[in-house]
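Submission checklist for the structure archive. All mandatory fields must be present; incomplete records are returned to the submitter.

[x] Identifier: Vancomycin resistance protein, vanW family
[x] Organism: Clostridioides difficile
[x] Residue count: 419
[x] Sequence attached
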Amino acid sequence: MGRRATRVSRLGKEKKRNIVIVLVVLIIAMGGFTYFFNSKFLYNGKIAKNVYIEGVNVSDMTKSEALRAITDKYTPEDLNLTYDGKKYTISPKDIDLKYDTEDVVKDAYESTKKGSYFQNLKKYIDIRVNKANMKIKAEYDEAKLSSKVSSIADSINVKMKNASISVGSGGLNYTDSVIGREFDLAANKESIYNMIKNKEHKTLELKVNLQKPDITTEQVKTVNSVIGQYSTTYSQAVEGRSYNVGLSARKTSDVLLMPGEEFSYNKLTGPSNKANGYKDAPVIVYGKLEQSAGGGVCQTSSTVYNAALLAGMEITQVTNHSSASTYVPKGRDATVSDGGLNLKFKNPYKHPVYIKNYAGGGSVSSVIYGNSGDKPNISIEVKQTGQNKYSTYRIFKDSSGKVIKKEHISNSSYKELKK
């Protein structure tokens, strides 16, 4: 019995020893495998397999090798912009543009090396299963880029300008219209930012909004002839009145009326008061002559009115004085006041008309220019319909003098001027 127990004990010890030997061998084997695995794959001084940077395969590369591979493909280049055939360039130096290639290569290298062993091992396995594609970031000076883009915008921007007309010693002069150009700052900045962010080496067509003029050169050049004019005289002895006639003539001069557009005398002259530059002069108020700021403006309005009648303008508002004027025939005057009495007329033609007034030397004239083909053959007829009552007609004739239309313009009634 004792010998048997001794034998069993000896066998147990041998079994344990064998187990220990096996375990030691396994540990040594695993250690060798781990050492081999670590030195071959995990801690081999190279970037793990299946790692890409912006689509460039940097697997099994050292950091310096990966940096060369990335730099060869991703180096900051000029940003090329264009508009209307002209090229604009923003160089990397202009905006301190650079790529964080060193940082991204470092991150790629350390992706399976900077954590704990098991974290690194897990990351290694994840990358082998799912490709890692790291992105390069662009860095630049925002203020310098904004300044450069604004400079390009300034070189492109053009203020829209309508065509215009003036009268010189040689006749009518025309100033050309200009199509406006407005650099779309927000849209272009976003496109440029995306070019930088995506590292695109293309030519960007800049977005510029065009502003077409309301009045074109072609339109104003159709104005080529006088189609109606009228003059009246005044005494230069009344200084305030002479001044007011001249001021109101200037304020209602150099007016370009487009087809269908309405002329408003009061809108152009503004209030007839001292604050608006007018002086005291005799003026008819409720049939009585008084001193008031703006005396004389009605002579200008009456002069413009008669030019408009003869030019064939569509009269939309006119009112006669309460007492007859001395500078125009009865039935052909046009009074105005800040209280609502106004002279208005529309351009009925398909072409623009241009109003030019002159005042000085005791005379005020209004000349209306238009297209020679629109020039009407007009005469004005005033009929007395009662005591101090008159009806005004405009008669249109063809080139042979035949009446083709007779148009009633207004009815006027006057009272004697109060003493």
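[x] Structure attached
Curator remark: The longest strand covers residues 403-413. The chain has a mean pLDDT of 89.
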